Amino acid sequence: MMFQTRDAFHGPILAAALALGSGALATAGCTGDKGDPGEAGAAGDKGDKGDPGAIGTPGPVDTGDSAAKFATATPIKHVVVIFGENISFDHYFATYPNAMNLTRETPFVAAAGTPKANDLLTPLDVNNNFVPLTGVDLLGNNPTKQNAQNTADGSTAIDPPRLTARQASTADQNHAYSAEQLAVNAQNGGKMDLFPSTVGNANPPALAPQVGKWLVMGYYDGNTVTALWNYAQRFAMSDNSWTTQFGPSSPGAINLISGQTNGAINTVNPHPETLAGTLADDGHGGLTVIGDPQPDGDVCSDPANRPQIKMPASNKNIGDLLNTKNITWGAFMGGFDLTIVNANGSFGCARVTNPTQAPFASSSVDYIPHHAWFQYYPSTANLLHQRPSSLQTVGSSKAADGSADPANHNYDSHDFFDALAVGNLPAVSFVKAPAYQDGHGGYSNPIDEQSFIVNVVNSLQASKFWSTTAVIIAYDDSDGWYDHQAPPIVSTSSGAADQLNGAASCTGAGAQQNATVATLMGAAGTTPVNGRCGYGTRVPLVVVSPFAKKNFIDHTLTDQTSVLKFIEDNWLAGQRVQPNGSFDTIAGSINTMFDFTRPAQQVESNTVWLDPKLGVEIGDSRVQ
Predict the structure, then answer these.
(1) Average of per-residue pLDDT across 75-83
(2) pLDDT tens track for 224-249
(3) Spatial separation of the C-alpha atoms in residues 87 and 446, rounded to whole Å
(4) What number of H helices and E strands is found in the chain?
(5) Closest Cα to residue 432, out of 573, 222, 257?
(6) Domain range for residue 338?
(7) Cβ-based burial of 153 (10 A; exposed 0-12, middle 13-18, buried ≥19)
(8) What pTM, to 2 d.p., does this model score?
(9) Among 115, 233, 271, 364, whose Cα sits 20 to 30 Å from the Cα of 284?
(10) Is 68 within a domain?
(11) Residue 11 falls inside a structural domain
(12) For the chain, what is the domain count?
């Protein structure tokens, strides 16, 4: 600490005096010998004390790794789930690992020996050990072109178009619970050939390509989604992971943390005509979430325009389970901090950031309530968006003084980076980018999404936590984007919204790997319910970790609750949210994507540093 100072006063000075005669001197006398020094004078009074300097800003406090003390089944002490928006597997990996590499595109060249993925380039037989299918050309003669329903409106049938980085911004597609089931065409063998007519939306005039509703067939390759392809090369990915049930964001978010979308309490429903597309009658007097209602009581929710729900106290989520063991966790939502004012002047719930890739179809507020996993549950909600008591308590239920932390485990995405910078990373973190970076068609794009993902991974690699961390990149739904693989139905439903096998019908079809239809109970635990038809649509799943297998493609059948299951198995000795009711009860394991026998020196060195804008390895000489 700095202080201002003042000089002390000096004491009296003694001087030798000349004795002068009373008369005038006629002549100067001779200079006498130098006399002895006089005695030192007394010390002067002590000066006034200076004013204290201003208090400096506290420096970062590294509290060590608080999560290291929690017993785990694997060497993983930290799981970070980056939960993106609205991407089908083929939309990002249709030709993996082959990229076109046209002039001026960000380059991607796969490593020799890269395994084949079940994609449009090399479709594999899911019921025969994933061997390549023969006589199938999904890129040059897609069955969608042959289905007359897709051209009944006079549109021109096309094969799946390759989208470039210049076409990063696109229209949002239809990803409703019923519409996604219709796209499967299960009544005709699950040919997956009705996407344009059931879920396709055209680009607005300002965006290319102008191919009408056939845009839904489009895909990117490694020249655009470069980071994800590079992570797949250096770590592990799955080509057989699914949304737990059909439908949009909210069912995906709720399934990720609980595996149970039944039991919702509809508190406000301003437009009854939307109820059928948002909440399904479960057949037993209850409701199941199949659309995008908002969390009741969230200060950013809009009850005048969208149904509001909350889950009953009897419905639990992974946050509840972790709290019972005092294991640290956090939900980090982009835009959640309402105290921030953006550079464009927007603030609070209306804080908005435009995509960087222009032109774009639309923009969105940074925080989207129906994406906020834990806000639906009173036990784990922070409805007023209160700020944490300190960065050191992020992830904890208690503030430093022992009182309840006001944030209740809900934070802004910037709090993830801020807490990490002071040496704090919860055991379990769920991270959602601000809307413009979440990958959702319409208001986001893969370039902005890539930047957020890379910044998260790079920050973790630079931290002391990397050697015990697993980053899981997963998605809430497919947005309706085309995917060629028919879903394995493990949970049936016969509600009015179900259309898979005909009116009010979703029955078992396309099961694989000995998976059979399960009998999962509703929230009450007494009987199966409607509105949980799934698995739904195939979505990307990438694991980035020093323990992830390198350049590995996992064919194990998994779904969104497989991430939940990994957390339960690692920290909670296999406890399930709702035994025989939640989907984690039957979920496949993602453990095949890891190698937990890896020597320590290999773990420490297993990193890849990517450029957030381009997705290439930093220092790649091919990039100009």
Answers:
(1) 98
(2) 999 999 999 999 999 999 999 999 99
(3) 10
(4) 11, 19
(5) 257
(6) 77-86+164-198+224-605
(7) exposed
(8) 0.89
(9) 271
(10) no
(11) no
(12) 1
